[in-house]
Design a protein that fits this description.
- The complex is a heterodimer of chains A (about 350) and B (about 400).
- Chain A has about 350 residues and is of the alpha/beta class.
- Chain A folds into three domains: about 150 residues, Rossmann fold; about 60 residues, SH3 type barrels (Roll); about 80 residues, Beta Barrel (Elongation Factor Tu (Ef-tu), domain 3).
- Chain A has seven helices and 17 strands.
- A six-stranded antiparallel beta barrel of chain A has the order 12-15-14-13-16-17.
- In chain A, helix 3 runs antiparallel to helix 4.
- Chain A starts with a strand and ends with a strand.
- Chain B is an alpha/beta fold.
- Chain B starts with a strand and ends with a helix.
- Chains A and B meet through strand 2, helix 2 and strand 3 of A and helix 10, strand 12, strand 13 and helix 13 of B.
Chain lengths: ~350, ~400
């Protein structure tokens, strides 16, 4: 097959490209230019779209002897991912830009361009597995539980999956690094990228404050009493404990967490842990990685990247406008369920689908 | 074997140049040394200088060997700018054409950003040509403030040739030195330093079948420049650094050979070029030639340069598809961190940004055959159609 290997400049995508080539595919390396200023140099080890990263990717492609191109998807990335990220936070939610990027950029804008240019598929260095099942291709967790990235791929539909390769899903990170070293890739010991790629210094709150105008307001407890001040409600995440700087301690001295963010009233509500336990999750923007379930079923659900899998009962319902929604009832209440995050459903290791958390209830 | 049609990027080194250089590489000797090994090397260097000068209508003492066209451009522009400003501090203005190569463009911009230069960009006409009258208008804004005028001989993207003697005459009418970037012209068009009227002329080795990393600035003896590099005082104190004997030998042999065969080769190349352009236009896909083009013309357009504006395409998609089909060519414009930028040349010619992204530069050289052109033309229609689908315009 003719395959685009997305090459960030990191070790995973380097080994991904090498394995695709060795599997006999006709591989072209493509680095996505997503940064708004293409010529920025790496400021830390976090980034994946700096000029140095593009250079690292090119070196690997040259070593493999495959063509290498930089595709400029910076505009689409800004429109689809960064603007959405800002808008979600401005609405008081906590988005996951990686899922958004996979849905709209890597397996949409990139995939579409690749298909239009005559390629058959896109391969990435995500840690997840694609397994041929009775009803078509299935997305499964990676064998390396610590690196498993199936959560951020839970937005891919059957069509996208049929055009995707994840050749690292059967390996551990250590194996991938060792393979990169044995192949002589200079990126073998390059640190992993972390956090959000378009916020290079990792200061999400500071980055958001520059983009979302915020007014100082109150932090109130569950009874409505003012217990602190905030410089702007945007950027607080449900379940957050650190950085609240509450002026009045709780009467019982127990720690308090963000219970909700109300941007219309410009209020952040905090509450003790026992009031944060969420049992019912409503999610919209439902995506199925294959055949959708019918009626009410038992699934494992994951509500944040690298979070634990929780047993739950899930019902698929129709919203007012006819759009599908998920009603997830957790067996055990869970703290820190943040609207805007995705809930990904698992049947064993298989990813069933996902939704974006729109509302929660105790 | 893929078909190589990117000779304006770099071309195949002549066999006799490779052989002469290989022979010289095995000999020891610093041309600045006084012993016999040094003398032998110096003889090679000075013969190379004489060979290059004779080929270009220049005097040997005017030839300053450099590491390439970019260094020659930078030395001329920064060097003349600083020297002229030292002579008269009012001279802070550079008159430069808007369609220059980045070696000129970015040097001028750096002088503006760091050395207090102001710039008057001379607009191009729709063909990419810089008219002497436009240069005159730019100078006349404030002639006493102009440190130098710099305009290229032939455009590296669209192949348009400027009337260099006319531009030199305008500059000289105001007593202003004139630099010409002749990197694309030398070996492809008749270039005579004395007849051109230029005070400084840049050339590069690897564009004419010589080695990479070689070039020269041909600089009139009466034109002082402030050096960019300091050291052993080689090249009349203007360009310090040990001369690469084999390199300058290869450079001079390549330029000599290209110039000796220029007349016949230009006609042959123009035939290939015309076949590319007519073939592309005949595809009925709205392709237009960039720059000035008349069949058989070898004086207004570089003989080997075919430039195609392909509507509805991204140039880099075309490049990939043609590469995959075995034809290697270029968009002609530079990338920024690997990200293709719309050509500043095409924008200066009045194309909009979308159109400027759909450029394809197909350039022939001394190894190009009619079969190469046929293979390219056979691959082009499918590439265009697919690139259009990828851009969502088909």
């Amino acid at each position: 097959m003719r395959v685009v290997a997305a090459m960030s400049g990191g070790v995973d995508s380097a080994v991904c490209a090498a394995r695709m080539l060795e599997a006999g595919h006709d591989v072209v390396g493509v680095h996505l230019a997503l940064a708004q200023k293409a010529s920025v140099l790496r400021e830390s080890a976090r980034g994946c779209c700096t000029i140095e990263d593009a250079g690292d990717a090119r070196r690997v492609a040259d070593r493999l002897g495959i063509p290498f191109y930089v595709w400029d998807l910076a505009r689409q990335f800004r429109d689809e991912v960064i603007d959405d990220f800002v808008a979600e936070y401005a609405a008081g939610r906590t988005p996951n830009p990686c899922l958004r990027c996979n849905e709209r950029i890597k397996f949409h804008a990139l995939l579409d361009k690749a298909l239009a240019l005559g390629f058959d598929a896109v391969a990435t260095g995500h840690y997840a597995r694609i397994v041929d099942g009775p009803a078509g291709r299935e997305l499964h967790r990676a064998v390396d539980a610590a690196k498993d990235q199936s959560y951020v791929l839970g937005v891919l539909d059957a069509d996208q999956l049929s055009r995707s390769f994840f050749p690292l899903g059967d390996s551990t990170k250590d194996e991938v690094r060792a393979e990169a070293a044995s192949r002589g890739f200079a990126v073998a010991r390059k640190p992993d990228s972390h956090d959000i790629c378009f916020i290079p210094d990792g200061d999400t709150l500071g980055w958001l404050r520059d983009r979302v105008p915020g007014e100082p307001g109150d932090i109130v407890d569950e009874a409505g009493a003012v217990v602190g001040r905030h410089a702007g409600a945007v950027g607080y995440t449900v379940g957050q404990r650190r950085g609240l700087h509450l002026s009045r301690p709780a009467p019982d001295g127990k720690p308090r967490y963000v219970e909700s963010v109300d941007v219309t009233r410009n209020v952040v509500v905090v509450a003790p842990a026992d009031l944060l336990g969420i049992r019912v999750i409503e999610a919209d923007h439902v995506r199925w990685c294959g055949e959708p379930p019918t009626g009410q079923e038992r699934f494992g659900v994951q509500i944040r990247a690298h979070g634990a899998e929780l047993p739950a009962t899930v019902a698929v319902t129709a919203g007012a406008g006819g759009e599908r929604r998920l009603l997830v009832t957790l067996d055990e209440p869970q703290r820190g369920v943040a609207p805007g995050q995705s809930v990904v459903l698992y049947a064993g290791t298989r990813v069933v689908g996902s939704g974006t958390i729109s509302a929660t209830a105790r | 074997m893929p078909v190589y049609l990117d000779h304006a990027a770099t071309t195949v080194v002549y066999d006799h140049v490779v052989e002469a250089m290989a022979l010289q590489q095995r000999r020891v000797g610093n041309p600045s040394s006084l012993h016999s090994a040094g003398r032998a090397a110096r003889r090679i260097v000075e013969e190379s200088r004489e060979r290059l000068a004779a080929t270009l209508g220049a005097r040997p003492s005017e030839v300053i060997f450099t590491s390439g066209g970019t260094e020659a451009d930078n030395l001329a522009i920064a060097g003349i700018f600083r020297s002229r400003r030292d002579e008269d501090p009012r001279r802070t203005r550079i008159v430069a054409s808007a369609v220059e190569h980045h070696a000129v463009l970015d040097c001028v911009e750096a002088l503006a950003a760091r050395d207090g230069a102001t710039v008057t960009w001379v607009p191009s006409d729709a063909d990419g040509q810089i008219r002497a009258t436009a240069v005159r208008e730019a100078i006349e804004l404030d002639p006493a403030a102009v440190a130098l005028v710099t305009v290229m001989w032939a455009n590296n993207e669209v192949g348009t040739v400027n009337d260099v003697p006319a531009i030199a005459e305008v500059a000289h009418a105001f007593g202003i030195p004139f630099h010409v970037d002749a990197v694309q012209a030398v070996g492809h068009l008749p270039v005579d330093m004395a007849a051109s009227g230029a005070d400084a002329l840049s050339l590069s080795g690897h564009k004419v079948g010589g080695p990479g990393g070689t070039g020269a600035l041909v600089l009139r003896r009466d034109r002082p420049v402030v050096p960019l590099t300091y050291g052993g005082g080689q090249e009349r104190q203007v360009r310090s650094g040990t001369i690469d004997t084999a390199g300058v030998l290869g450079l001079s042999l390549a330029v000599e050979y290209a110039v000796a065969h220029l007349e016949v080769e230009a006609v042959r190349l123009a035939r290939l070029r015309d076949a590319i352009i007519t073939g592309a236009l005949a595809l009925d896909r709205g392709i237009t030639p960039g720059g000035v083009w008349t069949v058989g013309d070898v004086s207004h357009r570089l003989p080997g340069n075919a430039h195609l504006v392909v509507p509805g395409c991204e140039g880099d998609s075309l490049l990939y598809l043609l590469d995959a089909a075995g034809s290697e060519c270029s968009t002609g414009s530079a990338c920024q961190a690997g990200v293709p930028q719309p050509s500043h040349v095409l924008l200066a010619m009045g194309l909009d940004e979308t159109a400027a992204r759909g450029a394809l530069r197909v350039t022939c050289g001394h190894t190009t055959t009619p079969d190469d052109v046929a293979a390219f033309l056979a691959a082009l229609p499918a590439a265009v159609d697919r690139a259009r689908r990828a851009a969502g315009t088909a």
